[in-house]
Amino acid sequence: MLLDTASLYFRAYFGVPDSVKAPDGTPVNAVRGLLDFISRLVSDHGPDALVACWDDDWRPQFRVDAIPSYKAHRVAEVVEGDAPDEEEVPDTLSPQVPVIEDVLAAFGITRVGSPGFEADDVIGTLATAAATPVQIVTGDRDLFQLVDDKRAVSVLYPVKGVGVVDVIDEAAVLARYGVPASRYADFATLRGDASDGLPGVKGIGEKTAAQLIGEFGDLAGVRRAAEDPASSLTPARRRNLVAAADYLDVAPGVVQVVRDVPLPDDLPVALPRAPRDPDALRALADRWGLGGSVQRLVAVLAERR
C-alpha cells in the first residue's frame, strides 16, 4: 500500500474539526486524522507492506521549466530573499507536518521521498518496481495513469474519509473517462487541469479529449491527425491543436509520472506489527494529545501479527 501522504493529511485537515487540539492548544486535526486514516486502511485492506510517500519537492523544477504555470497559483508569497517556492498551506497545518513525520518514525512506518521529485513520482517508481499487488491511496486523479490490471496496480480513491473508497481499476478508468488507463496521461494532457496550472488545448474538455484518444489512439496520433488535412478533425479543432504545439511538446513530461526516481535500496516497507520506538511514541502522544488515535493504530497493527 502506497500512501500519497500529503493528499491524505490535507484531506484529514479539512475533514477533522480544528477544535481537535493538543494540550497546549495547538491544532492536531491533520495528525490525528491521518493516523485514523491509516488505521482504517490497514484494518479494511490488510496490506503486508506500507509506505508513506512524500513530496520532497512539491513543484519540481523540471516541471516548472517545461510549463512555468505548473502549480504557480499555489505558491506562497515570499516577502524577501530568493527562497525556493513554498506551497501555500493553511497556517494551522504547516506546524503539524513535522509532528506527522515524528509519529510515523516512532511507529516505524517508512516515509520516503526523492529530492527534486513529487510523491507521485515516488509512488510511480515503487509501483512499477513492485513484484506484488499494489494499492495506491490518493485523491489525485493523475495517478490513475498507473492503474494496471495485469500487474494488479489499483487506486483507492477516497469518497468519504477512507472508509468509503472507489477502487479504481482499468474498467473504472474506462467507465469514468472513456479512455484506457494506459492513455490517461495523454487524455489529461489534452484536457488540461486548472488545479495544477495546466492549460490543456483550447476547446478540448474531457469528452472531446476522450473522443480524440479513442479515434486516433494516443496523443501522438492526435497530433499527426492535426497535421493531416485529410483527417476527420474539424478545421477549428485542427487549428487549436496546431496552435497548442508548444504546450503539447512539453506537457507529457509534466503530466506523466516519473517511474525511475532515485530511491534508497532495500527500503524497509514491511508493515510494522508494533511501534519501532514505543517510548518516543508515548511521549509524542502525551505532548500532542494523540492518545486515542495512537492507541487505535497500535491495536490495528497488533491484529496483523
Automatic annotation (TrEMBL):
Chain ranges of the 5'-3' exonuclease domain: 1-273
Top-level division of the source organism's lineage: Bacteria
Keywords for the protein's UniProt record, in alphabetical order: DNA-binding, Exonuclease, Hydrolase, Nuclease
GO molecular function: exonuclease activity
Keyword Hydrolase found: yes
InterPro entries, per the entry: 5-3_exonucl_a-hlix_arch_N, 5-3_exonuclease, 5-3_exonuclease_C_sf, DNA_polI_H3TH, FEN, HhH2, PIN-like_dom_sf
Purpose: 5'-3' exonuclease acting preferentially on double-stranded DNA.
Name assigned to this protein: 5'-3' exonuclease
Source species: Streptodolium elevatio
